[in-house]
Amino acid sequence: MTARRVVVTGVEVLAPGGIGTKDFWNLLSEGRTATRRITFFDPTPFRSRVAAEIDFDPYAHGLTPQEVRRMDRAAQFAVVAARGAVDDSGIDLTALDPHRVGVTIGSAVGATTGLDAEYRVVSDGGRLDLVDHTYAVPHLYDHFVPSSFAAEVAWAVGAEGPGTVVSTGCTSGIDSVGHAAELIREGSADVMVAGSSDAPISPITMACFDAIKATTPRSDDPATASRPFDRTRNGFVLGEGAAVFVLEELESARSRGAHVYAEIAGYATRSNAYHMTGLRPDGAEMAEAIRVALDEARLNPDDIDYVNAHGSGTRQNDRHETAAFKRSLGDHARRTPVSSIKSMIGHSLGAIGSLEIAASVLAMEYDVVPPTANLHTPDPECDLDYVPLHARDQLTDVVLTVGSGFGGFQSAMVLAEPGRRRT
Amino acid sequence: MTGTAVVTGLGVASPNGLGTPAYWAATLAGRSGIGRITRFDPGRYPARLAGEISGFVAEDHLPSRLIPQTDRMTRIALAAADWALADAGVSPGELPGFDMGVVTASASGGFEFGQNELRKLWSQGSQYVSAYQSFAWFYAVNSGQISIRNGMKGPSGVVVGDQAGGIDALAQARRQIRRGTRLVVSGAVDASLCPWGWVAQLAGGRLSTGEDPDRAYVPFDRAARGHVPGEGGALLVLEEAEAARARGAHVYGEIAGYGATLDPKPGSGRPPGLRKAVEVALADAGTDAADVDVVFADAAGDPGLDRAEAEALTAVFGPGGVPVTAPKTMTGRLYSGGAPLDVAAALLALRDGVVPPTVHSDPAPEYGLDLVLDRPRTLPVRTALVLARGHGGFNSALVVRRAAR
Amino acid sequence: MATDVFTPDALRRILLEAAGADETVDLDGDILDTDFTALGYESLALLETVGRIEREYGVSLDDDVLSEAPTPRTLVDLVNERLSAARAA
To answer: Which CATH number belongs to the domain containing residue B378 in this structure?
Structure first.
């Protein structure tokens, strides 16, 4: 039996500046930014006062009042994106054995925004050590353990197969989709509704990134605050969002005449075993993840048409990643375009990996490489082709997307037109 | 390489025993670790009992550099990982980093650490929040810290599946072994016995408000009224079978089969998914129901959930068709740590040919279960099934069996 | 709590609270001119340490304080400079 191959047949995105794949892609391909001064709460006390926020009306996206009440914002994003992805795929899940349909949702920080708000109430503004349970909302447990996100998505789409939340920090969005692909490949499921969601823009998140100076203090010009690979970069801009996909086995997708966006051709994750927040300058572990993902895809470095970078805009990350690309791709690292959509939609922690997969898939769909916005001043430490400011028309059949997360996680995924994988 | 995943090391941290020998001795003797909460004053809350780990002094096990940046659950997990590696006779420094991975489950992350930082945020201001809040509370922290401490650079992961997630982590670890990784540390530890965690658990509506430690958590009993939570769990060392054999490792058993399902949306009228998870796990293991010697039950202690589990078991095994036990009646439910602890107990049952008991429960006959009650039952155990369920409808089943010689 | 002088002993205490101490390092020994990295403290530990100093002493230190002050002595001096500047203001 030949190994089962896994393809993406449905995509839906909720991103800052673009709900739905069309608006999302317009934003990216036009190189516009969605970063702004924080409006969700008064950011005045914080070091970093910018974020990439979504103007999201859950009712406009079909959520019921009960769903809105019980779900954290990130869970709402996940459910809306999952429904959209299933619609986009055209698949009739009710015609399948529900035990063969699974769900994986990635999230780095779960319901942290909901927990922050509820803690403030039950502790009466931090005054009570013995917090008051009589003020707790009934759905607090669903915030406490964010596997509720996967349960909500499963209920929304009618899945009864394997389900989980994948939470590997800022690589969750790649690892969730990679995990789902493995389940299909090994035969544990036929269809996976897989993606990731995070809605971390809350005081506790801003405060903890302030404390490690990971987010940019460039609050005076929010629209240009996220500057991956630029010499003036000085931290990331927090974002939020979700992207969810329908993954299927290739032959069954073809036999139902589904539109195939891309094959999940290769995926790997490694750890740097070095530091919870720090990165080794040589990028060796990310390079190893890239090497293994390419090997699984049976593709060579020079098959890669576009590298969708982690590109968070911290000094450390962009240097680390540049080294990893050179180490794994050799000379091709200098020939292939590399860009970071975090320049436009910020860094949405566990969600961003799936948003970057979505951007990669759309780059293949439209044969356009999205740019790195705000890249005006080259940095000698970052000396690859980062597609500054403007998108580039280019045949794009094979995309490498990577992520790097607190905890030391380094993940890489190769997406390819199904015909490009060597069999 | 066969790609078979075997367990060669156990690291246990349980309310009724710290370390595998203490846990196993207490469990066979029926000694419970459930009592009134001491970590904070539970008097104002409707539930006051928990399974607390006593006698764990982090400074005895970990370098002081790690203490300020870790939640209690991470300290316990790091110690348990050390114990598991020592039990396996593995020195991680002697193996290539990329050949070793870490896959853990988490339920609520480092909730006590998070509570302290939230308190500082809201009572003192944002500049009082610790730099460590950026990772010390989050779900991935145990995998990350175990990886760093032991130089493990191979495929790693973190899953959240409420109280079923611990089994999903072990299954993911097995997957990595099958795909070529030599060794994976896997399992889970949770410890959210702090006021903020307590309030969140109370909101879930499944905590027992019983006051008597011997009657508060009585799964399959007509008096079942919820569960007592606890803290702790287990980390296991999984290795590829031939590699383990080649180095002469003691093998506890094989991770032979796995199945996972989600329950349908409440009100859909479709049946719950536990039975299907069991059937998938048995098929995955290539095992008939008749070959299963014992089932470690999820044992929710909630009448509806107990009935659903009993129905699944009698459907697969027939009424009274297999010995069933729930040693977690001595520890409380340890969230993501509970299932890996049960897997450890199942492996010890394989080793010793003895099934640990379920305590405190007087099972309702209508459930049709052969519960191993009050004292251990001696029987040859070749194959064991471990079940776990999580809030929101997660069902996971794992088959372990004696390794082929 | 604003205090007038930041002493090496205060730094030792805050380092221990913020980040513990490497087992091979005697913080009570002659450490004042040893780089923090050689003492086993990496950037995260020092961020936590600096944050605690800022809160306890009511001073504000620059983002690049640690490149200016790579040793305990230079950090103590720098904090004291800020404290006296604050008194003069």
So the answer is: 3.40.47.10
